[in-house]
Amino acid sequence: MQSISTRFSLVLVFVLSALSSSSTLAQALGQTDVSINFPNIIILHYPANLELDFTANTTEASAQLEADPTIAAVGLTEVVDVDAALTLTDTGPGATGQGITVQNVWAVRGITTTGDITVAASIDNADGTNGTSTITMENLVIQENGGSGPASSIDVTAPGFSLANAVFGDIVFDLDLAALTTAGLHTGILYTIEASAP
Amino acid sequence: MSLFRALSRRAVCLLLLLTAAEVAHAQCDTDDFRQFRTRPVRPQDAPISVDSASVQEGSVSVTIPLSAGSGNVNLALTDSGFTLPIRVPVGRWTWRLRARFSAPVDPSELLVNYIVSNGSNLVSNLDASSRMQVTVTTNRIEFRESGPNQIYEGWIDLWLDPTNASRSGAYSGSLQIEVSCQ
Fold first, then answer.
1. Is A82 a residue whose pLDDT tops 80?
2. Where are the domains of chain B?
3. How confident is the model at residue A45 (pLDDT cuts 50, 70, 90)?
4. What CA–CA distances, in Å, run from B121 to A36, A115, A126, A159, B162?
């Protein structure tokens, strides 16, 4: 009985071996894992030169109404010298900062670990001059067009690399016109927009 | 006797013809496939030489009424920085086919099909919504003989389009490889 059993096993092994050697693949098929690492990649778009041409309505400025001054009674003499002491109100283009917003003047694309891109603005040279006439950029901040900000630094959602998905932003600043004495082109203002991974 | 000799010669000729025909028609046949292996594309860095780029969009002029204090540049973007899609050559073979054809078959006769999971996307390990579109192509198929077998090793390129990606870091996925005959 023992002998029969052994013979049966040997036959079985032989048959399995034969099957194995004659097996074929109708199609080679396999599956494997893929893993790729990407670094932070940020692309910042900006104009190399930005020229702002301001237009002003002169009648608007000349029509500025001021409060009625109170003039003390003076004696009627041949020459009457009265100081009306007109007090100017600061509206429109004037001595204090003129608020300026320049929309869609920068854009960012890219990918980061957090999914955000930090965009910051700073002033490198505040003054623009034309001879002795000077204008000064102040309080520069940025904002995502239709999104976060204004602030000196904001986080925007990293949009990937598609141009169509790029995040656009504005700059907002005050322009001090106190030392502006000459019409015409004033040059020299320099600001920096920096995009980085938070 | 002469009939026997003639038959023998014909038999020899027939045998030689069969052998020649067998060699001449050594075509790819999946019945001759014996073993197929794949190897994971282990984590590797995308070959991107720049990590940031500043793109100057030229000079821009905008008119701003002082009374409004606002103007719109509408910056027009140019596609710059690096070229998309990003090609990632995998630095070692990804699939290996052992076959026992009657004669070596030109690798070009192998038909290779690649299917990437998640609708041909690698998915960010940090954020599943951040995806990298992938196309896989064969870089080359290396061939060598090993005894009675032929070994074919497939080297692949990954072409990554990060249009819909927002995260850096690792992206992973699964690649199914099918090899058959043309």
1. no
2. 28-42+75-181
3. very high
4. 12, 18, 48, 17, 10
Within 8 A of A47 by CB-CB distance, chain B residues are 56-60, 73, 75
Within a 10 A sphere around the Cβ of A50, how many other Cβ atoms?
A: 17
Say if residues B14 and A9 touch (Cβ distance below 8 Å): no
Q: Taken in order B115, B120, B126, B127, is the CA torsion positive or negative?
A: negative
Residues B2-26: tens digit of each pLDDT: 444 544 444 444 444 434 444 444 6
Half-sphere exposure of residue A91: CA atoms within 13 angstroms, side-chain side = 9
Q: How far apart are CA A143 and CA A172, in angstroms?
A: 8
The residues in B 16-35 lying below 8 A from A, measured between CB atoms, are 30-35
Binary contact (A92, B67; C-beta < 8 A): yes
Please tell me what DSSP assigns to residue A132. Answer: T
ipTM of the complex: 0.75
CB contact under 8 A, B62 and A37: no
- Give the pLDDT score at A11: 37
| A156-175: average pLDDT | 92
* Paired residues of B65 in beta bridges: A55
What is each CA distance from A111 to A197, B28, B45, B64, B117, in whole angstroms? 9, 45, 15, 34, 22
The set of residues, in sequence order, having a beta carbon less than 8 Å from that of B138 and lying 6+ positions away, is B112, B154, B155, B156, B157
Model confidence pLDDT, tens digit, residues B137-177: 999 999 999 999 999 999 999 999 888 889 999 999 999 99
- Nearest alpha carbon to residue B85 among B173, B166, B159: B159
Subunit contact B168:A105, Cβ cutoff 8 A: no
Shortest CA distance to A38 belongs to which of B82, B15, B32? B82
Domain B28-42+75-181 indexed as CATH 3.90.550: no
Instruction: Give residue for tokens 């490889």.
Output: B177
Q: How far is CA B14 from the centre of its chain?
A: 44
Pairing verdict, β B59-65 and A49-55: parallel
| Sequence-ordered list of residues with C-beta below 8 angstroms from that of A165, at least 6 positions apart, any chain | A109, A159, B163
Report CB contact under 8 Å: B80, A47.
no
Q: Among A8-17, B74-83, B101-110, B121-130, whose mean pLDDT is lowest?
A: A8-17
Q: Which segments of chain A does DSSP mark as H helices, in order?
A: 2-22, 58-62
